[in-house]
Design a protein that fits this description.
Layout lengths: L1 E5 H12 L13 E7 L2 E7 L3 E8 L2 E4 L1 E6 H10 L5 E6 L5 E5 L2 E5 L15 E8 H11 L14 E6 L3 E7 L3 E8 L8 E6 H10 L6 E7 L2 E6 L2 E6 L18 E6 H12 L8 E7 L2 E7 L5 E7 L7 E6 H10 L4 E6 L6 E5 L6 E4 L5
Helix pairs in contact: 1-2, 5-6
Length: 368
C-alpha cells in the first residue's frame, strides 16, 4: 500500500470513524482502523462489534493498492498535529509496519493484518426507507435524552423504531419518563415493524446527520440497521428484545391542562433544582388558577420557592416530580409555549409543544 493524500481529506473521515473505536478493547485489532486502498478510493472502517462505520475518500495519488489496520487514535492524533495544508504520504513497509511522511516529519506505526479485522456479517435486507437527514436528526435530538444508560432491562438502553405504511415513530424511555415523536412518510411498509437500536448506535447516527434536506437511506435487516449518507456507511446491530407497550404509558383522560412559557418554566425549575435533594432531585409543584408554584428543599433544611404565571383555570393540585426530567423536556422543546396535561397526584404528566411539533413527553410523578 502506497498513496498520497492531503491532511484535510484524510482528517474528516478519520474523525468520523474513530468515534466508534473504544479506547479499551478486549481484542487489540478493535483499537485499529481498517484501511483499504482500491484504485484511487481509500475506505476507512472502525467498529466495536456493535456499531461499524465505513468512510470513503479519494486519494490524490495512488501508487500501490493494499489493506492494513493501524492504531486509530495514534493516526488521528498525528493527522491533527500536522500543518493545515500538509500533504501526507503513507507507505507500507516490507516488515508490515506503516510509515507516514509529511514535510520533515516521519512516523512509523505498528499494524495488524486486515484479515484479523471483524466484518459485520452480511444478511438479507427486510425493508428500507428514505427520508431527509434533517428530519431524522430532529427525531433523534427530540427523543434520545430519555434513553436509559445502563439499565438491567437492556432493551431500554436504546430506542424503538416503529415503521408502518405511513409513519416512522421513535420512542425512548428509561422507565421514569418517555419521549416519542412521529414522522409521516410516504413509502413505508404494509406490516408494522418494531426494531430497537442500541444507545451507541443512536449517538453515532445522530453525529453523522446534517441539517440539510439530502436523503438518508435506512435499510433494516433481521439483526442490523444500515444507513447510507454520501461517502459514509453506518451499520449497527439491533437489540434483541421486546420494547414495552408505550401506548399503555401514555396518560389518558387528563382534565387539567396548563399552558405556560417554556423558557420561564425551565428557568424556574432550574433555579429551584439548586436546593433540591441532590440524590432524589424531587420538587413539589402546586397548581392553582393562573399560577404554578415550585417548591424544593433538601436535608440541610434549605428551601426554594418559584412562582410562574400560567394559563390554567380549575381545581388546585399538588404533585411531585424529578426536576431533572422536567428540565430535560423543557430544554428540548423548541416552541415558545408548552402544554402540560395532568389528572391527579399519582398519574403521569403529558408534556408537548403548544404548536409546531409532534413530539410527546411523559414524566412519572414522584412521592415526596
Amino acid at each position: 500500500m502506497h498513496f498520497v493524500i492531503s491532511r484535510e481529506a484524510l482528517l474528516k473521515p478519520l474523525q468520523t470513524v474513530c468515534g466508534v473505536v473504544e479506547r479499551r478493547q478486549t481484542l487489540p485489532v478493535l483499537s485499529n482502523v481498517l484501511m483499504i486502498l482500491k484504485d484511487s478510493e481509500l475506505s476507512l472502517t472502525g467498529t466495536d462489534l456493535e456499531v461499524e462505520l465505513v468512510a470513503r475518500v479519494t486519494v490524490d495519488e495512488a501508487m500501490q493498492p493494499g489493506e492494513i489496520t493501524v492504531p486509530a487514535r495514534k493516526l488521528l492524533d498525528i493527522c491533527k498535529s500536522l500543518a493545515d495544508q500538509a500533504s501526507i504520504e503513507l507507505t507500507m513497509l516490507a516488515d508490515g509496519r506503516l510509515t507516514l511522511k509529511s514535510g520533515r516529519s516521519r512516523f512509523t506505526l505498528a499494524t495488524l493484518p486486515a484479515a484479523e479485522f471483524p466484518n459485520v456479517e452480511e444478511e438479507s435486507d427486510t425493508f428500507s426507507l428514505s427520508l431527509p437527514q434533517s428530519k431524522l436528526r430532529e427525531l433523534l435530538e427530540n427523543t434520545s435524552f430519555a434513553m436509559a444508560q445502563q439499565d438491567v432491562r437492556y432493551y431500554l438502553n436504546g430506542m424503538l423504531f416503529e415503521v408502518a405504511s405511513d409513519y416512522l415513530r421513535v420512542v425512548a424511555t428509561d422507565g421514569h419518563r418517555l419521549a416519542m415523536e412521529t414522522l409521516t412518510i410516504e413509502k413505508g411498509i404494509d406490516e408494522v415493524q418494531q426494531l430497537i437500536l442500541p444507545r451507541k448506535g443512536i449517538m453515532e447516527l445522530a453525529r453523522l446527520l446534517s441539517n440539510d434536506e439530502e436523503d438518508i437511506d435506512l435499510t433494516f435487516g433481521q439483526n442490523h440497521i444500515r444507513a447510507r449518507v454520501p461517502a459514509i456507511t453506518f451499520t449497527s446491530k439491533l437489540v434483541d428484545g421486546k420494547f414495552p407497550d408505550y401506548n399503555r404509558v401514555l396518560p389518558k383522560g387528563g382534565n387539567k391542562v396548563v399552558i405556560g412559557n417554556c423558557q420561564e418554566l425551565r428557568d424556574a425549575f432550574a433555579r429551584a433544582s439548586i436546593l433540591s435533594n441532590e440524590k432524589y432531585r424531587g420538587v413539589r409543584v402546586l397548581l392553582s388558577s393562573g399560577e404554578l408554584k415550585i417548591l424544593a428543599n433538601n436535608p440541610e433544611q434549605e428551601e426554594a420557592e418559584e412562582v410562574v404565571s400560567v394559563d390554567y383555570e380549575g381545581e388546585s393540585l399538588e404533585i411531585g416530580f424529578n426536576v431533572s426530567y422536567l428540565i430535560d423536556v423543557l430544554s428540548t422543546l423548541t416552541s415558545e409555549r408548552v402544554r402540560i396535561t395532568l389528572s391527579d397526584p399519582n398519574s403521569s404528566a403529558l408534556l408537548e409543544a403548544e404548536e409546531g411539533s409532534e413530539a410527546l413527553y411523559v414524566v412519572m410523578p414522584m412521592r415526596l
